[in-house]
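Sequence only, no structure available. Ideas?
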Amino acid sequence: MKILICPLNWGLGHATRCVPIIQQLINENHELTIVSDGFPLQFLRQEFSTLRYIELPSYPIQYSKNKSMLWSMIRCFPKIISGIIIEHLWLKKLLKTEHFDQVISDNRFGMWNKSTHSIYITHQLMVKMPYYLKAFEPAIWLLHRTFINKYNECWIPDTEKNGGSSGDLAHKYPLPKNAKFIGTLSRFQNTGNKISNFDFETVAVVSGVEPQRTLFEKNLIDKYKNQASKTLIVKGQPQNTIQKTTIGNVTLVSHLSSAELAAYLRGAKKIIVRSGYSTIMDLQALNCLEKAEFIPTPGQTEQEYLKSFHS
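Reply:
I predicted one. Tokens follow.
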């Protein structure tokens, strides 16, 4: 089949969890085209250099510098709706000139079309709202379900029993009729002979939406640069050439291959990460979850919930 893979560009997580899906489809000899932008596009280019790529901007979003995301999301909402419409019309135009048997969208709401089989990937069927907006959670769930119902299938990267790894996010409300659990997804599911690298006592992985990504990185540098033990900070910024700098006892790298990062995470005594869902699945795949210190993005209710759930 000819298949489009379309991960959202809100951090690297949507792209990284597509890796095992892409690898499986390659093994089955399907013809793949990746549609994304920014660092996710760069990341997948490095992981799968022989595939075809199309750059299509995701919805613009910028987080707040403080602990509340509400006004940032309200300001971004018109641009998000516009982005959904633009990508939906873009796909419609593409399918008039080129046939695709299937479109797989990781959290891109507009990547569906009645003329092709479309699949939507999400672990967050319900959206955790701030405590003062809890009453709106059922309405937001119904709104998200409206988008999900546009697709032929909804794949949930989680297990069905005992709340899985996502807890309320995928298990609190009844599932749409087109939804099914497909098991957890991680880029580390096939990382070879499981070599460990013990060069750094602490390994921090920094990614996500700006400006919080940069603020997180700066806080980690300030905290660890003068400590006796060595710390590695992976900045989550894939580039053609890996950028490496040292500040005190902290080493910063722009990006690492999946195999290299897996080795450092296995060898570390302590891992510092955001409590994003893809990160949690990655640490589970490496059996490193117990070493993790989760620091949620301020005001990001999903990450705050996942930290609590996995405590």
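The mean pLDDT is 93.
Hope that gets you unstuck.
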